[in-house]
What we know:
Layout: H1 5-25, H2 31-52, H3 56-59, H4 64-97, H5 102-124, H6 139-170, H7 176-192, H8 195-200, H9 207-226, H10 228-252
Amino acid sequence: MKVDLTRILLMTFFFVIPVIGIWLGQSSPALRGRIPLIVAFFAGIIPIIALYVPKNFLSGQEGMSTRLGQWLIIVAGFALLLGVVNVIQNSSRKIARRDSGWLFSAVLVTGLLITGSFGIWGAVSHHGIGFMPDGSPTPFKWVEDRIFQPLQSTIFSLLAFFMASAAFRAFRARNTEATILLVAAGVVMAGRVPLLEFLAAPVPALHPAAASGSLFLGSLTEWVMNTPNGAAQSGIIIGAALGAASMAIRVILGIERGYLGLGAGEQG
C-alpha cells in the first residue's frame, strides 16, 4: 500500500494542527495567536521551498505546493462568501439605523442581491452569464451591459477630470524636477497626437515637413517612454517587490501579526 506523504503532511499542517489549536485555545488564549502563526509559516514556506527543491512531493503535479495552491482556491471562495456576508451585515445595520449614507448602502445591497441572483440562475439553468442559446443576453449580461458598464464609464469620466486638474497643478516649472516633468509630458503628448499635421493643414506646402516632424516626435516619444520612463518604472517595481518580499518574510516568521486581529492577551 502506497502512502501519500504529500496528503498526510498537508492534512497535518492545515487541519490537524489548527483543530488542536482551537481545542487548546479554549483554555489558553495565548495559543490562539501561536497556532495561526504556525499555519501561516507552513503556507508561506512550502511554495518557496518548492521553487528551489525539485522534488515530486514538493513541486510535482501531485506535490504539496500544487495541492496547496488548489486548496487556496477553495479558501478564496470561502473568503469571498465571507466578504459578501460582511457587506450585507454592515449595510443592513447601517440601513436599520438610518445612518449617514444609508441610501447608498441600500443600493449596494439591492445590486448585490440582484446580480448574485442572476448569476446563480445562470449557473442552475446552465446558460451561464454571457448569452442565451438564441444569442440574446442573459439577465446578468443585461445588467452588466445596461447598468454596470455605463456606471463604470461615468466613474472613469470623472477620473479624467481629476487627472486633468492634477496635471494642471503638477505641470508648473517651479523647480528643475517640475521643469523636466513638464518638458517630458509635452513631448509625449505631442508625439501621441497628430499635432503638427493639424497645425500644417491650412498650408499644403508644409505637409511633408509636418509628416517628418511627427515621425521624429513619435520616435522621441518612444525613447522617452522606453528609456527614462522604463528605468523609473523598473526602480519602482524593484522597490515594490522588495517591500512585498520583506512583508512576506515578516508574516512567515511571525513578526507581523496584525492580520490575526487578536487582542493584547492573545498575542502570545
